[in-house]
Amino acid sequence: MSLDDLQLDRPAAPVPTPDPAGTPTSLWRWLIVIVGAMGAGAVLMFWWMSRTQPVPPTPASATAKDVATVSNRPKRQPLDLPNIDQSDAWLAQLISTLSKHPTLARLLATPGLVRNATLSVVQIGDGRTPAQPLRALRPKERLQAENASGHPDAQSYSRWDSVAGALTSIAPNDAAQLYVNIKPLIDQAYIELGHADGDFDAAMVRAIQMLADTPTPADDLVLLKRSGYFEHDDPALRSLKPVQKQFLLVGPDNRRRTIGWFRQFAAALDLKVD
């Protein structure tokens, strides 16, 4: 297109002139420049700090922490506890719903159940044999040893089968719930025995630990007959606590059953036993 084709009569477009300093347009332009510079500086600062500062470790999940501290111990059920002096029939009925084992029924027929059970645990924890409070569980057969070797005969071990069976006939978790439910009565009996703190958990741990610490002999037991009693031929076994020496005479199978049950019972109560 030649110059003659242009529409010379068209008004010319106005030529923009710069805004004088101090006008609103100029002010906004400078604000935009300043804000942009500040944003760029912030980006550069963040980049520098991110490459020079160590990244903090991710905090542990609160849910995982809560799970780790959850207690296995059952909550006490809302039972109206009787007076300790009138608790025998009530407690016997409660326990009989958990097991009908005949040896257990024989024990439940004896008076002073709470106090006898409390005393038994304390005596075992002290290393003593609870012969008096648990006299209802004493086997009718007497301990016998083979004359030639001095080993206990098979009948001497099996005479404790019913006692171990009575204990293990109750599920450990059910026993833990029962313990928690009647613990106020047990704590009362514990205080009567001279323990001012009144918390029976420590006594329970001591008793279970005492039995669990009974060593397993490398060889068959050898008994020496004395006047009216037997004693262990091994000097190391003779040095054990009385209840541990007696515990050896219930036989290896009954010991395993009993200790296994007590460990499960302690675990259900969150009691630590080595």
Mean pLDDT across all amino acids? 81
Give the SSE string: HHHHHHHHHEEHHH
Sheet/helix structural class: mainly alpha
Tertiary shape = globular
Proportion of residues in extended strands: under 5%
How far do the termini sit from each other? 106 Å
Number of helical stretches of at least 4 residues: 12
Spatial order of strands in the largest sheet: 1-2
Question: What is the number of beta strands?
Answer: 2
What helical percentage do the residues reach?
40-55%
Residue stretches low in confidence (pLDDT < 50, at least 5 long) are 1-55, 64-68
Largest sheet: 2 strands, antiparallel
Q: Tell me the radius of gyration.
A: 41 Å
Compile the SSE list and pairings:
Layout: H1 24-52, H2 62-68, H3 88-96, H4 102-108, H5 113-125, H6 154-158, H7 161-168, H8 172-192, H9 201-212, E1 223-226, E2 229-232, H10 235-238, H11 242-248, H12 252-268
Helix pairs in contact: 5-8, 5-9, 7-12, 8-12, 9-12
Describe this structure in words.
With 274 residues, the chain is mostly helical. The chain has a domain of 179 residues. Helices cover 51% and strands 3% of the residues. The protein has a two-stranded antiparallel sheet with strand order 1-2. Helix 5 packs across helix 9 and helix 7 packs parallel to helix 12. The longest helix has 29 residues.
Give a brief rundown of this model.
This protein has twelve helices and two strands. The protein is an all-alpha fold and 274 residues long.
Labels describing this entry:
globular; disordered N terminus; mainly alpha; 274 residues; two-stranded antiparallel sheet; 12 helices
